[in-house]
């Protein structure tokens, strides 16, 4: 399957700007060193296609994390071992998918389950999922950290340069289950203090 075209640079820049208040540099090192090298189709030599995920926050080689809270609306195990979480963010300022009938955002825990897709096995080597998934169900409120990406395998750019579908937090590099009924964590915009390099 051929991937769809990457998002135009102007769309990526606008999405990255909207995501800036949510940057969470304390997760960047773990994301880049522990999680990103094991993302299926981003490790050179895995699968028949590469560059499936277009990074919005950071670069393709050094993604950076955002942190957001919200509610799980659906969870679906995948053949590549990932657990897909359909997710509605608490903060309306965070970029979301705009197509009617689509979930606002998808968040993925990599290798959370058994891998039955052969070409996803190589990226799993040396990785063990550290994120507990037993409490995750429809209606669970969570706070997650990971990079904002556009998945070119099924992403859609709709009218007005809005992303119809394909925006994801992938991979999730940190997850905290929030108490039911708890107020959302502070949504006060934060300025990035991440040093370059």
Description:
By secondary structure, the chain is α+β, with helices and mostly antiparallel strands. It has one domain. It contains 3 helices and 10 strands. It has helices spanning 9-19, 28-35, 121-124; strands at 53-55, 66-77, 83-89, 105-109, 141-146, 148-151, 156-157, 163-165, 167-169, 174-177. The strands form 2 sheets. An 8-stranded mixed sheet has the order 1-6-9-4-3-2-5-10, with no helix packed on it. The protein has a two-stranded antiparallel ribbon with strand order 7-8. A hairpin with a 5-residue loop joins β2 (66-77) and β3. The relative contact order is 0.24. Residues 187-197 have low confidence and may be disordered.
Topology:
Elements: H1 9-19, H2 28-35, E1 53-55, E2 66-77, E3 83-89, E4 105-109, H3 121-124, E5 141-146, E6 148-151, E7 156-157, E8 163-165, E9 167-169, E10 174-177
Parallel strand pairs: 4-9
Antiparallel strand pairs: 1-6, 2-3, 2-5, 3-4, 5-10, 6-9, 7-8
**Which strand order spans the largest sheet, edge to edge or round the barrel?**
1-6-9-4-3-2-5-10
CA(first)-CA(last) distance: 35 Å
Secondary structure: helix percent: 10-25%
Alpha plus pi helix count: 3
Task: List its traits.
eight-stranded mixed beta sheet; disordered C terminus; single chain; 10 strands; 3 helices; two-stranded antiparallel ribbon; 12% helix; alpha+beta; 197 residues
Q: What's this model, at a glance?
A:
Helices cover 12% and strands 25% of the residues.
């Amino acid at each position: 399957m051929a991937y769809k075209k990457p998002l135009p640079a102007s769309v990526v820049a606008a999405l990255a700007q909207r995501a800036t208040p949510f940057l969470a540099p304390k997760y960047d090192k773990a994301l880049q060193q522990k999680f990103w090298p094991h993302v299926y189709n981003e490790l050179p030599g895995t699968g028949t296609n590469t560059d499936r995920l277009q990074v919005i926050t950071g670069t393709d080689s050094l993604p950076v994390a955002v942190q957001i809270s919200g509610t799980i609306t659906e969870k679906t195990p995948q053949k590549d071992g990932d657990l897909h979480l359909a997710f509605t963010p608490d903060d309306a300022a965070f970029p979301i998918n705009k197509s009617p009938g689509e979930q606002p955002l998808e968040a993925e825990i990599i290798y959370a389950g058994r891998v039955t897709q052969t070409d996803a096995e190589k990226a799993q080597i040396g990785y063990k999922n550290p994120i507990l998934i037993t409490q995750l169900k429809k209606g669970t409120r969570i706070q997650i950290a990971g990079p904002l990406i556009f998945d070119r395998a099924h992403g859609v750019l709709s009218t007005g340069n809005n992303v119809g579908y394909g925006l994801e937090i992938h991979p999730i590099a940190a997850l905290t289950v929030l108490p039911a009924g708890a107020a959302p964590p502070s949504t006060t915009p934060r300025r990035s203090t991440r040093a370059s390099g």
